[in-house]
Specification:
The protein is of the alpha+beta class. It folds into two domains: about 80 residues, Glutaredoxin (3-Layer(aba) Sandwich), CATH 3.40.30.10; about 120 residues, Glutathione S-transferase Yfyf (Class Pi), Chain A, domain 2, CATH 1.20.1050.10. About 50% of the residues lie in helices and about 10% in strands.
């Protein structure tokens, strides 16, 4: 049985990716929740299970796999159905996962995942506008080229959808509402049973990490809008 270390579900977008891909594998696993630092710093105690002191981290006996993309590939080598079967769709899915993994720096820094929140932080920065536009483009083109009438990016729910699930939560938190196929996909992703399971657990958490709290990060902007206590 696998063991998967994950952080706070309200905040930890990378943990969400690792957890969704592990669920997608259908392999049994034990979930080991660990509390992220309230100061937003790395916890040296995490080195006992993760060489980078970060989550997610997967243990398969004596084999340790860290980083959500590596976890996804490790699981996909051992469990069928995690990537699209069609080689063209699979290449596309891997590419958009890699783009998500390495890019969208403005989205990450300006829209931290906080599942319980609903805030309007507009006007968005130029960099954030570009990131939102690119994600909307990816969702629309994926659905058009590879959706095949199913609700997800490349047909059946896959690693690609797991990698964009934190974006779906971010879009909902910050009121990003894409139209057309991208908007339909956003609602389908938020409605997936695995995503809803993670969300339900996140809403039960009471820990507050100010470094990831939109109402702390954007206190002055929200005060000007008159929504600081909304």
């Amino acid at each position: 049985m696998y063991t998967l270390y994950v952080g706070n579900k309200n905040y930890s977008s990378w943990s969400l990716r690792g957890w969704l891909t592990t669920k997608l594998s259908s392999a049994p696993f034990k979930e080991m929740p660990v509390a992220l630092s309230t100061e937003g710093t790395l916890n040296p105690a995490f080195r006992s299970f993760s060489p980078t002191m970060r989550v997610p981290c997967l243990h398969d006996g004596t084999t340790v796999v860290w980083d959500s993309l590596s976890i996804s590939e490790y699981l996909a080598e051992r469990n069928l159905g995690m990537w699209p079967v069609d080689p063209v769709a699979r290449a596309w899915a891997r590419s958009i996962c890699a783009e998500m993994h390495s890019g969208f720096s403005s989205l990450r820094s300006e829209m931290p995942m906080c599942i319980r929140e609903r805030v309007d932080i507009r006007p968005w920065s130029p960099g954030l506008e570009v990131d939102i536009g690119r994600i909307t483009e990816i969702w629309s083109e994926s659905r058009r080229r590879f959706g095949g009438g199913a609700p997800y990016l490349c047909g059946a729910f896959s690693v690609a959808d797991a990698f964009y699930a934190p974006v779906a939560f971010r879009f909902r938190t910050y009121g990003v509402a894409p139209g057309g196929d991208a908007g339909t996909y956003l609602q389908a992703l938020l409605s997936h049973p695995f995503v809803r399971e993670w969300e339900a657990a996140a809403l039960q958490e009471t820990a507050i990490i100010d470094a990831d709290e939109p109402r702390t990060i954007y206190r002055d902007r929200l005060a000007k809008k008159g929504t600081a206590s909304a």
